[in-house]
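---------- Forwarded message ----------

FYI, see the Iron complex transport system permease protein record below. Original note from H. follows.
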Amino acid sequence: MSVLTDSQVLTRARHTGRRREITVTTVLVAGIVLTLALSLSFGDFQIPLRDVVLTLIGQGDTADNFIIVELRLPRAVTGLCAGLALGLSGAIFQALLRNPLASPDMIGVNQGATIGAVIASIGLGVSGFALSASALAGAVIASTLIYVLAWQRGIVGYRLILVGIGVAGASSSVVSYLLTRADVSVAADALVWLTGSLNGSSLEQFWPLLIALVILLPLTALTARPLPVLQLGDDTAAGLGVPVERSRRLLLACAVGLTGVAVASAGPVAFVAFVAGPVARRLIPTKGAALVQAALVGSLLMLVADFAAQHLLWAQMPVGVVTSLVGAPYLLYLLARANRIGKGG
């Protein structure tokens, strides 16, 4: 029986990891396509999948075209893109800070975007691109404040998380105050949005999100190149010639932008960014941050949660309620695990 050399064992392990990565990515994409098709097919008026396809390629009848293209498609593609942005941003934060609790909805970035969107919608009555820009501005201001307050000759993950939790609490108080000053009907609508909802999604909300992703995704791919080295630690990365703080700031800026545009389009949907990264890393344990797979998990989670919120529960609910039902037990598990092993992750 032949004995494998070290290089042959390494090559075999790489091939096995590559096959698993391709398989997981293919399954996630197939799940997204299937869930997207079901979202367009199911509703008060059931439309066969064949007619859904015909309508999407421009050969459907007028009624199907109105139901699918005007009513259901904006909600589905907004959920897909917002989930992708949240999943990717959460994986970046967690990998960069090397802590599973460091997702944007835990450290105040979501809440900063929420303040920007609430001020713009309630105070100024804006929507569409202006609303997205306001949410993005809120996320940038909040994340800059967190970064400055957490800075002490560099950034340490647990300190940034603690500062972020404080900023998140303060931001939630500001949002609550703004709601008490708003008209009752406007405040009621805002509360639904603050839960994280795709109800009433329109192409007007979708286009700014799509344009932002077209810009942010290539930038993220470019700035994420040194991420595997950064995960080895600041000293090791600096020793290998990586400009640590500049690389970290660029990656955080991309993650903040992704969070801001996602919150502007779908509200601060809880736990998608928090759960997507760990799920992707469990599926491909040898891939490191697994950013692509985390983005796909985020999209799939958002689409499945929205489908369940519309059709599988006793009443229609905001998508954020369903994602919270999934994410809250996972948060409790992480906290219990951290308490057991005596560290934050």
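H. also flagged this: The mean pLDDT is 84.
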